[in-house]
Amino acid sequence: MTQERLDRFREVAARRQPCLTVVLENVHDPHNIGAVLRSCDAVGIMEAFVLYTESQLDLDRLELGKRASRGAQKWMDIHFYTDPEACFRHVKSKYDKLWATHLGETAHSLYSLGLTQSTALLFGNEHDGVSEASLAYADGNLVIPQMGMGRSLNISVACAVVLFEAMRQRLQAGLYGPNNPLPQSEREALVEAYIERTDRKNYNRKIWKSG
Length: 211
What we know:
8-stranded parallel beta sheet
């Protein structure tokens, strides 16, 4: 481990956002999962949730989703669930607000939301969006304002737009600097985790978190 690499780990750990996460529901395309998780890492998210409830999304699809997340697994914790109640109980135990991306009548514009607070962001699949069952767990809905004929974006694009608006707000609030909420002890533990996960043998032994 070079000193440069170790310094990089410390720099990244100091900017991690323990109060921001993403929940993906029934996302079919593993490439979309991979793209979303790269955006999550880019804005400093520490963990993400992947929920599969549709019967056609069998165990093979679940395994594809896990494979798609392996690159991000070095730097983030990925929680896989097939039980919505267990998934959202976990999410709500750690995050104060759960916003769903949904074109409902009461949806709020992304740019009207305060995303510096403890927030989880729920995204549905490429065809049907967030299910009614999962919407019941949300505190509210958000939409990305659009000026064209279309009213939807690819899931990975939509997620990136929302996450980088959250990052913009958090940068202004100093959450990537002096006001970062992650305690020093947890930053040090995160650096140790990065070192361990960089070791290929330990990385391959990583136990998937499922529910």
